[in-house]
Design a protein that fits this description.
16 helices; single chain; alpha+beta
Length: 470
């Protein structure tokens, strides 16, 4: 039986700006009772994370800003804004008990700082002009810590750009040198018109961080903010988005479902962030896309998630994807003509299909280059579908615990206890007709060539096992 908080979300038709504003309030209002006394932290539950508790509670406070800020920028009211402003003040005050602390190298605090840069750039009149001179200086000093520590070689490098750009827009202290250095570094992420989540040669990951909610998203935000002082780079980012758009559209099915692939699936709605950022940045859409098509892509994706069992009784979002699943934790018009075809995207070694209304992709050659939980399932399966989310293991004993869907699982013991699935494919080639060939080395002495193609709306997987040596 639905609670009142759940029904508030589920009955929303999600067709207008007012509907989206109401959805945002319905998602944020349940967080307010979880704000700390000083309003600088939010803790809903203790699910565990790879970073410290203060950083986790800062995350709870900062993430809603990605919705609150556009709500205010769009001219809508937010009745709890005073609590978040109080959090800005107390969280950056070293003398306050809820001070967020100075970040260390590769610290989660650096991730959350991006939301503050975003708030300054979009709503400086709310999040900067209302502060006293002392409060401004504390906020400025805390944010500038991002220029003094090490960031990972991935999308995190954009956080420094967002923070410094936000400070520049409101007239705070910032580092143009830091912005320029990060842009130079991020250029190494691009390969044949697509970004990977890291420099060329160091990563094999081109997931939603590369296609939607990170690198393209931040690029398009910057292209809107910096037009007056960095017009050439802004146009480059818009041009890249135009080129990517006809590929990104294939991540979404006619019903609004996006294909689950890669890490951070629990971000859910963020999968369609590319389209929101493209609209905000006034990107000139390539034919046959139109703003009606983009509106449909965005709203159907939102409707798909709000129709799932992803909300707790109090209206807060659970960890998971189409339903609550702690194992997943880490960490309108429609282009029917476009989606009738098979789409080959060579830079990321993927083939998309929408045959018979089923949106799915074939993939090979991508992998996480760090010890990510369930990396083989998030990147290494042979196919991913918008209709059938991928499974992850619940144990290591027997095929039943493997979650071996859309993949090959091999066993080398007579009892059938220990199974291996592909984590990474090598020697990847892809043909114009969408045939992907790759090799998998499950054991040192075995090479397994995999050939995947789309034929008569069925996926065929011819394969053979050959020794690596006579």
């Amino acid at each position: 039986m639905r609670t009142e908080a759940q029904d508030r979300i589920l009955r929303n038709p999600l067709r207008t700006r007012d509907d989206l504003a109401e959805l945002l309030r319905a998602l944020v209002d349940p967080l307010v009772p979880h704000l700390s006394p000083g309003s600088a932290r939010i803790q809903i539950n203790r699910s565990g994370a790879h970073f410290d508790e203060v950083a986790a509670e800062l995350e709870g406070f900062a993430r809603p800003l990605w919705g609150i800020v556009p709500l205010l920028a769009g001219g809508f009211a937010f009745e709890h804004i005073d609590r978040w402003l109080e959090g800005f003040v107390n969280g950056t005050d070293p003398e306050h008990e809820e001070y967020w602390g100075e970040p260390l190298d590769r610290d989660q605090r650096l991730v959350e700082m991006a939301a503050f840069g975003f708030a300054l750039a979009m709503c400086g009149d709310v999040f900067w002009d209302t502060l006293s001179s002392v409060q401004k200086e504390r906020l400025n000093s805390w944010l500038l810590n991002i220029n003094t520590v090490e960031l990972p070689e991935n999308n995190w490098r954009f956080f420094k750009i967002v923070v410094n750009t936000g400070l520049r827009i409101v007239g705070g202290k910032y580092s143009q040198k830091a912005i320029d250095e990060e842009f130079e570094w991020i250029e190494s992420f691009w390969q044949d018109g697509w970004p990977y989540d890291g420099p060329r040669g160091s990563t094999l990951s081109a997931d939603y961080y590369a296609s939607s909610f990170a690198i393209p998203f931040y690029s398009l935000l910057y292209s809107k903010w910096a037009q007056s002082w960095d017009p050439d780079r802004c146009e480059l980012f818009r041009a890249r988005a135009r080129n990517m758009a006809l590929d990104v559209v294939h991540l979404f099915g006619p019903d609004g479902a996006s294909i689950p692939f890669g890490r951070s699936m629990t971000y859910r709605f963020a999968m369609s962030a590319f389209w929101a950022a493209a609209a905000y940045a006034d990107v000139e859409l390539p034919a046959p896309l139109s703003w009606g098509v983009v509106k449909g892509l965005l709203l159907r994706n939102f409707r798909w998630f709000t129709a799932r069992e992803v909300f707790a009784a109090d209206g807060t979002m659970t960890i998971g994807y189409a339903y609550s699943n702690q194992i997943m934790a880490e960490e309108e018009p429609y282009p029917a003509g476009l989606l009738a075809e098979t789409r080959v995207v060579r830079p990321i070694n993927q083939v998309f299909s929408h045959a018979a209304g089923h949106t799915f992709l074939l993939s090979s050659g991508q992998s996480a280059q760090f010890p990510l939980r369930h990396a083989a399932q998030k990147y290494g399966k042979l196919a991913y579908s918008s209709a059938f989310g991928f499974s992850v293991p619940t144990g290591s004993l027997g095929i039943e615990q493997q979650g071996a869907d859309s993949t090959l699982a091999l066993c080398d013991d007579a009892a059938g206890q220990h199974w291996r699935v592909r984590r990474e494919g090598i020697n990847v080639t892809i043909s114009d007709s969408g045939i992907i060939k790759s090799d998998w080395v499950p054991w040192r002495e075995i090479v397994l060539p995999l050939h995947r193609k789309l034929k008569h709306r069925k996926l065929t997987l011819p394969h053979r096992i050959q020794p690596t040596s006579p």
